[in-house]
Automatic annotation (TrEMBL):
Organism from which the protein derives: Pseudoalteromonas lipolytica
Lineage: Bacteria, Pseudomonadati, Pseudomonadota, Gammaproteobacteria, Alteromonadales
Modified residues (4-aspartylphosphate): 53
This protein's record includes keyword Plastid: no
Entries under InterPro entries matching the protein: AAA+_ATPase, AAA_lid_NorR, CheY-like_superfamily, Homeodomain-like_sf, HTH_Fis, P-loop_NTPase, Sig_transdc_resp-reg_receiver, Sigma_54_int
Domain annotation Sigma-54 factor interaction: ranges: 141-370
CDD domains for the chain: AAA (cd00009), REC_NtrC1-like (cd17572)
Pfam name, any one: Response_reg
Keyword hit for 4Fe-4S: no
The protein, known as: Sigma-54 dependent transcriptional regulator
Amino acid sequence: MPPKILIVEDTESLALMYQSYLIPTGVNTRIAYTGEQAIAALEEFQPDLIILDVMLPDMNGLDILSSLNGDNSPQVIVLTGHATKEMAIKAIKLGASDFLEKPIEADRFRITVNNGLKLKDLKQTVKTYKSTYENGQYFDLIGSSAEMQSVYQIIKSASASKATVFITGESGTGKELCARAVHLASPRANKPFVALNCAAIPKDLIESEIFGHLKGAFTGAIANREGAAGQADGGTLFLDELCEMDINLQSKLLRFIQTGCYQQVGSEKEVKVDVRFVCATNRDPLLEVKEGRFREDLYYRLHVIPVTLPPLNQRGRDVIEIADALFKKISKEEGRSYRGMSDAVKNMFLKYSWPGNVRQLENTIRNILVLHNEDYIETNMIPALPHSQNQSVETAASEPSHRVKTQFEDNTPISSEIISIDEKPAEFSQSDIEPLWLVEKRYIEQSIDACDNNIPKAAALLDVSPSTLYRKIKSWEEMQVS
């Protein structure tokens, strides 16, 4: 049965144009020209996805969006014409999966609708099979938290398809393990899995690394070489740190993804392969698009099945499960015995923020096993972890709650002050009151500056998504212009 899409647009010519955009996709569409018609269609038509204009003649489209709060609610794509960025942000907070600004190109419209339908299918799958992986492990991924259960379900749902998986997450969260799980869960599991780190290859060589080259194609090409694309034929090609790829090579990658054909460096012959793409980045891809470092059309071509890996400090007791598995694995590699961790060690691991995520945890565990030969892990074996330049994890765990030190991931303290709850606050009068948005703006700008203008890092420390900061910055810029 084809998906059902409700188009809510009061301008008839635009509504019919959007409907014509979707004809090639084979979906079932219906048009509502007013809010009242849309509400009636929700009950009768029961759409899988709604294209929702905000400015309707009889009501605000966001009022319709706010009423959709059930588990089986359709996905919503909000259309903005004269709307502000603040309105778009509000729409996302109310549950919209995406928003589009008018005028809208046909390809962009179809891709956004297709992604919205895929997201609805994945959410339904997550709900249906929520408790499938109660053992806390999915291939090499470990963790029983709800966040990781959702990741496992998305991988399981996407694995049978050839659709591109786009993995985002901080450094050290296990993006390559996630990509490998996508491959191993798919029908391509017995075919090659080829990983290519776009950040680790010199700019002048990355095209050759991906597509291969012929002998004599450039200085140093002493023999024919098959690239990663050819090696992955029939299997999966994993492009790690994709946003590091040179902008000039991105157009060739886009064509390769669209057609499955490429040319080796120095050759005019086209080679066709069957490759499933998985890519990953620790950057905010939309910000990279805005800054002109990443092609927008490539982003929308790749951003089909998004997977966001949560940082370790948001995964609860997963840190204990991962630590135990790593102790067992590394103890065998290092020829050590391991029987378990004390409760005090577990508590320290749970309290620590792990800015380097699983990679930092793994390095810490290897340090413990290399430097100590005991088979039971106690707190005195844990090395000093970077809360401050001379503070160990033990002192951090025992520090009084009213004494706070703040530090970013690069271990550079942003303040050496110790704040005491006993200090008497300064006098505060009405003249000191500022608009809340201005206070937020100043604090966010200070945070970004402290992170050396690294917005994803600032967003992680502020516990918001990078896109949230980007939208706020954009809204402030527009306020200054106006």
